[in-house]
Amino acid sequence: MPPPKDVVKIAIQMVGAIPQLIELQQTKPLAAVLKDVCDAWSLPNAEHYALQYADGRQTYITESNRREIKNGSILRLTTSPDQEAERLYSGIQSKNVDVKTDSLKKLASLSQDVTFAQEFISRNGLKQIYSIVEEGNDTGEMLAHTLKAFTELMEHDFVSWDNLSTVFIKKIVSYVNMNAVDASIQQLSLSILENMVPTSRLLFELVKKEVTLDRLLTHLQVTNAQLQLKAMALLIALLLTATDAERRDMIDYLREKNIRQFIHKNIIHSSEPLGDEMAHYLYVLQSVSLNLCEHRMRTSMDPYSQEQRELLQSLRQTAFESESEAPASNFSTERRRSLCAKEFRKLGFMNNSNPAEDLRRAPPGLLALDNMVYFSRNTPNAYSRFVLENSSREDKHECPFARSSIQLTLMLCEILHVGEPCSETAQAFYPMFFGQDHFFEELFCICIQLVNKTWKEMRATQEDFDKVMQVVREQITRTLALKPTSLELFKTRVNTLNYSEILKLRQTERLHQEETLAVPVLELRERLKPELLELIRQQRLLHLCEGTLFRKISSRRRQDKLWYCRLSPNHKVLHYGDVEEGVESPPIESLTEKIPVADMKMLLVGKECPHTKEKSSGKQNKDVLELAFSIVHDMEEYCLNFVAPTRYEFCLWTDGLNVLLGKEMTSERTQTDLDVLLSMELKLRLLDLENISIPDNPPPIPKPPSNLNFCYDFSHAEQ
C-alpha cells in the first residue's frame, strides 16, 4: 500500500553516527521533527540544528520548501543557518589568515542558499565583506572567495546595489584595470560590475567612467574564454543601459577600434566552439548596432531642411552630371525646374516635381535617402549604370530606382528587426555583420542591384513592382537563412538564386501542395495520422530521456547557472539537478532531484507559469514568455519551472510532458513534424501513381449481375 501523500520516507545522516531511516510527517512542525532526530542521537539543543540535502546544492530544509522533499531523499543533520552564519561572521573577522580564508571559502559556498544568506545579511555580514575588499590589499585566494561570496549574497536581491560605497566600487574597478591580478578575480569583478550597471544611472556613469572601452577591449583579446565572456557581458550591459546618444558614441568608438573585425576573426571563427552566452551577446551587439538606424528610419524628410535637400539634389547631379552640368546655368528658372523634374522622374521618384514627398513616409524615412546617397557615392559606377540603363528603357519597363530603394530599405528593416527591442534569450546573429563596418548600407548596395537584376529577369513593368519586391524578399530571406559568413558570399549566393530558381522552388512547393489536396489523398492522410502521431510521441519521449541543459534566468540578468533534466528510461521519473558549465550529458545517477511522473498534475506555459509572474520587472520579455513552462506536481502546490533554450526545445518538452500526462501534443512543432512524415509516407504510397491523375471521386461500383449461377460445377467434371 503506498504511503499517504503527506508522508515521505527519507534517510538522515550525521558524521560519526548511524543514519536514521524515518517517515517524515509533512504536517508535523519542522522543529518537532528536528527534536525527534536529535533525541534519537542524544543531541541536546535541537534548535541549533537544521536539515539540508546531502547531495546537490545542499539546500537547507525550511517550512517553505519542505514539500519538495521526495521519497528516498537523503538529508543531513547540520548546524542551523543562524548558528552557521554567526560562526562564519566571526570567522571572517579572525586575525588568523587560515581561519579567515577557510571561513570565506565556506561562506562563498553557503551563500547560494537563500535561508543562510538571509541570516548572514541580517547580522550585517555584508559590511564585513565591504571592509575586507576596501581595506585589504590581498589579490589571491582570500579575495577570490570574498568576491564569490559577495556575488552569491547579492544574487538573492535582499540588498540594493545602491547601498555600495564609492570606495568599494572603485576597488572592484581597480581589479578589472590591473594587469598583474589573477584571472578568476577579474572574472568575478567584471561579473559584479555587469550586475551593478543596469540598477541605477549613477552606478552606470561611475562604471562607464572608471572602466574604459579600451580596457574592456583588452580583456576581449585574451585567450581565457571565461574572462573574454565576462568582458563582453559588461560591454553589453553598458550598451543596453546607455542613452541613445551615449550608445551611438560607444558604437562609433568600437568601430574605430575595429571591434567587429576582431570578433569576426578571433571569436566567431575561433578554433573553440561558440557558447550560448557569447552567441547571445553577439546577437545583442548586432541588434544594438542596427537599432542605431531607428532614428533615421522613423524621421520623415523635412522639405525645408537645406541639408536634406542637398542630399536629394546630389542623387540627381551624380546620375546626370555629364549631360546637365554645362547648359544648366543658361536655362531659365522654369526650364531648370522642368529639367530637374524630368531627371527626378528618371531616378524613379513618384512625385518628380517634389521628390521630398516620396520620403515623407516613415518608416523608412530618411534611412532610405541615406542608403541611396551611400550607394551613389561609394559605388558611383553601379549607381550610374542602374539609372542610365533604366532611362533608356520604355517608360513602363523602367525599374524605378528611388521607389525600389524606399521599399527595399523598409524590407531590410523588417528582415533585420531594426527598431525592435533585444530579446533576453535569442542567439541568432549574422556572422557577416561582424565582417563589415557599414553593414546595413553595404547590404543595401548589394540588394538594390539585385532588384534591378530580378526586374530584368522578370521582364517586369510598373504594374509588377510589388511582385518583383516579393521575389526579392524571398531571395534575401532564403540566402540569409544559409548564414553566409561574409557579404561577398551573400552576394554570390543571392545572385545565384535568380528568378528562375525561385520559380522552380515555388513550383515544387505548389505541386507538393496540390498533390496532397485530392480527396482520396486526404482520406489516406487521415488513416495514416494515428500511426504517425504515435511515432511522434515516441520521439518526444526519447528526447526527454536524452535530457536537455537549461539555463537559470532571473529578472535582472542572464545567469551562468545551469541545470539538467531528463526522463528515466522507463518513463516513470523525471530526474534533474544543477550541473557545471561544459557538462553536456550528465549520467542520470548524478541528477539528485526527481519527480515521479505519477505525481505530475498539469503543465503550465507562458504567462500561466509562476516564475514569469514572480519577476520583479513589470515589463515581461516576450521571448522568455514564449519559452517558459512549468510542471505542477504534488497536489498542485509545487512547480518545477523551466525556460527552454530554444523554441524547438520548448515544443519537444511540452509535447513530451503532455504525452506523459495523457494529453494531446499541442505545439506547432507537432503539426510540422506530422506534415513532414505524412508527406514522406504519402509520396512512398503514391510512387506507383506518378503522372497518373487521381480522380476526386472513386469509380462507380457496377450493378450486381441479374443471374449469379455462373460458377463452374466441379462435381460434373470429376464424374
Automatic annotation (TrEMBL):
PROSITE patterns: ELMO (PS51335)
Pfam families per record: ELMO_ARM (PF11841), ELMO_CED12 (PF04727), PH_12 (PF16457)
InterPro entries: ARM-like, ARM-type_fold, ELMO_ARM, ELMO_dom, ELMO_domain-containing, PH-like_dom_sf, PH_domain
CDD domains: PH_ELMO1_CED-12 (cd13359)
Keyword annotations from UniProtKB, A to Z: Apoptosis, Phagocytosis, SH3-binding
Single annotated GO MF: SH3 domain binding
The organism's place on the tree of life at top rank: Eukaryota
GO biological process: actin filament organization; apoptotic process; cell motility; phagocytosis
Domain ELMO residue range list: 307-480
Function text: Involved in cytoskeletal rearrangements required for phagocytosis of apoptotic cells and cell motility. Acts in association with DOCK1 and CRK. Was initially proposed to be required in complex with DOCK1 to activate Rac Rho small GTPases. May enhance the guanine nucleotide exchange factor (GEF) activity of DOCK1.
Record-given protein name: ELMO3 protein
Source species of the chain: Onychorhynchus coronatus (Royal flycatcher)
Origin organism lineage: Eukaryota, Metazoa, Chordata, Craniata, Vertebrata
Name of the gene this protein is made from: Elmo3
